Amino acid sequence: MPQQLENAIATLSQKGYLNMEIPKGIDLIAEINKLRKEKNAIILAHYYQTGDIQDIADYLGDSLQLARAAEKTDADMIVFCGVHFMAETAKIVNPTKKVVLPDTLAGCSLADSCSGEGLREMRKKYPNAIVISYINCDSTVKAESDIIVTSSNAEHIINALPMDQEIIFAPDKNLGAYLNQVTGRKMILWDGACYVHEAFSLERIGQQMLDNPKAKLIAHPEAKAPLLKVASYVGSTSNLLKYVVEDSGTEYIVATEEGILHEMQKKAPNKKLIPALVNDKSCNCGECAFMKLNTMQKLYLCMKYELPEITLDEDLRIKALQPINRMLEMSKAIK
Predict the structure, then answer these.
(1) Cα 117 to the chain's mean position, in Å?
(2) Distant-in-sequence, close-in-space partners of 325: CB < 8 Å, separation ≥ 6
């Protein structure tokens, strides 16, 4: 084994990625395409990745779309360009496939806010409740859940349950509050949130609306309630994209992670897209630092050496698979 690779592997758990230099002048796109073919690999990428990674992906989507793609693929290796819980989900539904993630430190503030142990304790307080967890959680939380949902299918799945069924919803309190509103439920909410969607400034966005009177505010339901109340449209990442493409308007203020604007602009090139402003006035955009940890260089090294690899304890994987399968079965009617 070359010394540089040996050193990179030795620091992998600390760095989160293979810390290696790549040859100067290398054509990363050509090399990644070559590796994809040689290894029968599929690259799955979330809309919040950088534009170059989105463009090279075999499949680009939101959490529900990527879970479906991971479940159905016949590739030998799944290269997941997203955050850690997404790669874990791919491994849960595809135990015989090798799943790799360019940078394992690509985490999630929302996923970090909840644990399987914490959810077990909460369930003890509400013994008659079922646990519905947003897919933005780790495998231990999935394993303690009865049903997993995404922002694309949560309303559909909750509406399929009896109105008198007590529900614990974890970990996103903002999404849970929004779902309570649209479904008429009184779900018990875990106190977690996404730092990106929490950071949007209603005051600064209000000024954006005044400065751009033709623009419609559209928002992801992970945002805070006051922002959702003034939005023209609230929807999942994929539904926000669909709305911009199909709506008759021409200008939009987009209140979600700004990575989606790359695909929006490709699908709707003649429309004006404005990233919603956050509270921090030194930053004019809402970016997830975790999502942006993946780079083309890390993607190349990840595919070449098939590291870092996502592995799971088999008992945990089987337990976490059950609520995901319930989600996939209950979501068949959603396109």
Answers:
(1) 23
(2) none
What pLDDT score does 335 carry? 63
| Residue 168 dihedral angles phi and psi, to the nearest 5° | -95, 130
pTM (predicted TM-score): 0.93
Rounded to whole angstroms, how far apart are CA atoms 143 and 160?
Answer: 22
Residue 46: CB partners within 8 Å, gap ≥ 6? 60, 61, 62, 63, 66, 81, 82, 83, 86, 259, 291
How many percent of the chain have pLDDT more than 70? 99
In the structure, what pLDDT confidence band is assigned to residue 284 with cuts at 50, 70 and 90?
low
| Cα–Cα separations (whole angstroms), residue 25 to 19, 71, 301, 305 | 18, 36, 15, 20
* Closest C-alpha to 152, from 32, 242, 280: 242
The tokens describing 73, both together, are 């693929």
In single-letter form, the type of residue at position 329 comes to E
**What tokens were used for 235?**
């929807």
